Amino acid sequence: MALTKDQVRHVAKLARLNLSEEEVEKFTPQLASIFQHLDKLAEVDTKDVPETAQVSGLETVTRADTVKKGLDREDFLKTSQRESSRGMIKVRKSI
Amino acid sequence: MHKPLKKLSEELRSGTISSVELTKYYLEEINKRNGELNAFVNFGKETEKNALEMAKHADSIIKNGEGNELTGIPLGLKDVFCEKGMETTACSNILKGFKPPYEGTIVARLRKMGAVFIGHTNTDEFTMGASTETSCYGTTHNPHDLKRTSGGSSGGSAAGVAAGLCAWALGTDTGGSIRQPAAYCGVTGLKVTYGRTSRYGVMSMASSLDTIGCLTQTPEDAAIVLKHIAGHDEMDGTTPKVDVPDYSTLLGTKDLKGIRIGLPKEYLGMGLKDGVRKNFEHSIEQARQMGAEIKEISLPMTEHGLAVYYIICPSEVSANMARYDGLRFGPTSDAKNLVESYFEARTKGFGDEVKRRIMIGTYALSAGYYDAYYRKAQRVRTLTLREFDQAFKEFDVLLTPTTPHVAFECGSLSDPVQMYLEDVMTLPASIAGIPAISVPNGKIDGMPTGLQIMGPHFGEGQILKVAQALS
Question: Between B105-113 and B219-229, two packed helices, what is the crossing angle to 10 degrees?
Answer without folding.
Answer: 110
